[in-house]
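FORM 12-B: Structure-to-Sequence Request
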């Protein structure tokens, strides 16, 4: 029988590690499917339990050189990761302290000072050794595992290059003077500084990665913990986890709905924004469906549970986020891919160089010097800096522009985006209702209609009330009604200066004896645009209809225009009805609309767009957007949105301005162009310099200088990103 399980993995540091773990698990007889997630440090496995056991999976991962466990409590997992990050920070700090004097020594040497105590070989050896073999031990371990798996990566490049610099320096500074009374050039700073910066990059990456799992954890906290069970006419509070299909549940004002089901008695308004993304509460009465984890605002109702736990819409949202994150394997760095043949080639060239010089001259020192020059000149400083230098500059410039990329992976992914999917509410629109129409009736003026509407809504907590009060000078000058009564899901009745004012839907006014025939056309005109129509009556006579809708952001039209101008296919997706969606789409110029979809359907729609073979960016702000954000190639969240959306996303737009979406994609494309330029020059440097080193025309000293020059050129090229967007007036 096919089973599914999750194992927790420790020790993965790069995409090559994830691939090694995946291959180790796939090698087991009975494994059907494996998805290793580097960010979450876990693997989801489908396997045939008749052919293997869970313990076999743990053994396979352990055998590949990584830690693995089947069961880890959330708190224990967080604590373990926090400990790992503290250890990483200690290594980074220690390496930095030990490397600093070596950098100072190099600077003094370049300035012509050759007599400083910092130039003493023994002192430099003492400073560099802990960095090389304690802080840098993880690279040796990673290099060994990479070689065993046949997938050498940056760990091997870093280990090889820094070890060559370290050993050559130790030979020149410590061993050579014992026999010749002369010392050669030292490269201890090269080995120590490379290790320090790579460790710093790994630490920052680890800090970013641990937040990824926060989306699911925050979702879990929104699950209702208790439910009020109605049994034989008696109410009793029970854990929500004990509710089963068929149970009758009492849902009181302010409580979260504990299960998916149907209202069988009572009425209310329910805030479903976390599911649909729409800010307007939904009226519920007998026969209407309700969804778990949504919030009951006003009245009390009795419901029959139909789906519970993981089977609810909310449960499926959690599962969708988990699956989308787990299926999103990080792309492997170009430098890692090239390393598969670059590293063996360098070793082979160094070996051939040594053998050739021995055969030609028989001079061991000359042969060692030339071979060492090859290894020093091939030290992957420029290669190692090519991606992180550009990514660091790109992320820094993005932060200045109000665009926060989660990590370099998000930047690299963003440049592939060709389809941009925009959520409607809170992304294209403000995400809160505002008065859009005032249609007076029976000779009453607009100002009077709005004033009576504001008096009626003065004591209401409904979002429509907030919109009406905001339209009437912020509600500050609106007088208090003498009495107030709310009818859940329908409207309100107030008395003011002896008059009765009603505000609500047309059906409510009709049930209250008001002739609504004059209001029918106004209601139809407002609702045809997908807006909410609030009818106002004074002393039994309809005096007007107020339209309430979610206002489009001022910047949305420009944002859509810029995206289309950049060659993007723009699609709007929303849980709102098609009429309202198409009205907004026409307003901002979006040609494609997907409307009336729940969170899991949003994620499915994103996956369908991805199947077309083009990179898809999803832009949203709500809890309901989290599965789609996680399912997209690039998830972009508005900073004004829900924490869960922010944590499921790969990038955050701080100002909540859609225009920044186009800017973010342009920045990503420029950053990737810079990475490719850096890699090109880094590889070209090696192609040119290695033959010179092998032929003996490039001494280790010159090799070290060339190596430093290549690194400087890569950093200088990356720093050009700091000027990105300034010609467009971007701050």
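FORM 12-B RESPONSE
SEQUENCE OUT:
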């Amino acid at each position: 029988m096919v089973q599914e399980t999750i194992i927790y993995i420790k020790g993965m540091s790069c995409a090559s590690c994830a691939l090694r773990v995946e291959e180790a698990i796939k090698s087991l007889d009975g494994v059907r499917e494996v998805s290793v997630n580097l960010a979450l440090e876990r693997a989801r496995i489908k396997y045939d339990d008749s052919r293997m056991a869970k313990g076999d999976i743990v053994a396979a991962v352990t055998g590949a050189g990584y830690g693995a466990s089947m069961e880890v409590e959330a708190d224990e997992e967080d604590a373990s990761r926090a400990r790992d990050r503290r250890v990483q920070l200690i290594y980074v700090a220690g390496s930095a302290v030990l490397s600093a004097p070596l950098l100072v020594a190099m600077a003094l040497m370049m300035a012509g000072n050759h007599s400083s105590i910092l130039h003493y070989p023994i002192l430099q050896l003492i400073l560099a050794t802990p960095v090389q073999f304690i802080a840098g031990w993880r690279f040796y371990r990673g290099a060994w595992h990479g070689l065993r798996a046949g997938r050498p990566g940056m760990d091997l490049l870093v280990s090889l290059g820094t070890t060559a610099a370290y050993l050559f320096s130790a030979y020149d500074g410590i061993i050579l003077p014992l026999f010749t009374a002369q010392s050669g050039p030292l490269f201890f700073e090269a080995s120590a500084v490379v290790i320090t910066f790579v460790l710093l990059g790994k630490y920052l990456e680890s800090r970013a990665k641990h937040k990824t799992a926060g989306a699911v954890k925050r979702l879990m906290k929104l699950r209702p913990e208790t439910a009020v069970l109605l049994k034989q006419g008696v109410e009793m509070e029970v854990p929500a986890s004990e509710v089963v299909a068929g149970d009758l549940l009492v849902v009181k004002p302010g409580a979260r709905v504990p299960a998916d089901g149907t209202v069988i008695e009572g009425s209310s308004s329910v805030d479903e924004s976390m599911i649909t993304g729409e800010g307007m509460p939904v009226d519920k009465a007998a026969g209407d469906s309700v969804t778990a984890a949504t919030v009951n605002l006003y009245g009390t109702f009795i419901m029959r549970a139909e789906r519970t736990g993981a089977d609810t819409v909310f449960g499926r949202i959690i599962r969708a986020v988990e699956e989308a994150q787990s299926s999103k394997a990080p792309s492997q760095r170009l430098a890692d891919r090239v390393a598969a043949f670059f590293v063996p080639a360098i070793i082979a060239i160094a070996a051939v160089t040594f053998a050739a010089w021995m055969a030609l001259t028989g001079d061991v020192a000359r042969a060692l010097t030339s071979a060492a020059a090859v290894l020093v000149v091939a030290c992957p400083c420029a290669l190692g800096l090519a991606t992180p230098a550009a990514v660091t500059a790109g992320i820094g410039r993005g932060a200045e522009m109000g665009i926060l990329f989660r990590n370099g992976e998000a930047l690299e992914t963003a440049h592939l985006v060709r389809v941009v999917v925009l959520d409607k509410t809170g992304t294209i629109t403000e995400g809160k209702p505002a008065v859009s129409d005032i249609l007076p009736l029976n000779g009453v003026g607009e100002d009077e209609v709005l004033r009576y509407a504001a008096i009626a809504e003065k004591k209401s907590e409904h979002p429509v009330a907030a919109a009406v009060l905001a339209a009437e000078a912020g509600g500050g000058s609106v007088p208090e009604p003498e009495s107030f009564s709310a009818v859940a899901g329908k409207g309100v009745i107030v008395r003011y200066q002896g008059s009765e004012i009603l505000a609500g839907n047309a059906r409510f006014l009709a049930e209250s004896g008001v002739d609504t025939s004059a209001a029918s056309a106004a209601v139809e005109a407002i609702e045809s645009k997908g807006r909410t129509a609030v009818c106002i009556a004074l002393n039994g006579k309809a005096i007007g209809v107020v339209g309430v809708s979610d206002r489009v952001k001022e910047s949305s039209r420009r944002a859509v225009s810029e995206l289309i101008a950049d060659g993007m296919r723009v699609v709007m997706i929303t849980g709102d009805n098609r009429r309202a969606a198409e009205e907004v789409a026409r307003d901002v110029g979006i040609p494609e609309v997907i409307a009336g979809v729940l969170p899991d359907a949003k994620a499915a729609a994103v996956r369908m767009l991805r199947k077309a073979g083009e990179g898809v960016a999803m832009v949203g702000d709500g809890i309901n957007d989290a599965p789609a954000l996680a399912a997209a190639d690039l998830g972009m969240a508005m900073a004004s949105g829900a924490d869960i959306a922010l944590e499921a996303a790969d990038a955050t737009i701080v100002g909540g301005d859609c225009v920044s979406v186009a800017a973010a994609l342009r920045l990503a494309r420029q950053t990737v162009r810079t990475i490719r330029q850096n890699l090109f020059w880094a590889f070209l440097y090696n192609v040119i310099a290695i033959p010179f080193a092998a032929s003996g025309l490039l001494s280790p000293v010159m090799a070290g200088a060339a190596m430093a020059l290549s690194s400087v050129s890569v950093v200088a090229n990356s720093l050009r990103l700091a000027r990105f967007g300034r010609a467009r007036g971007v701050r």
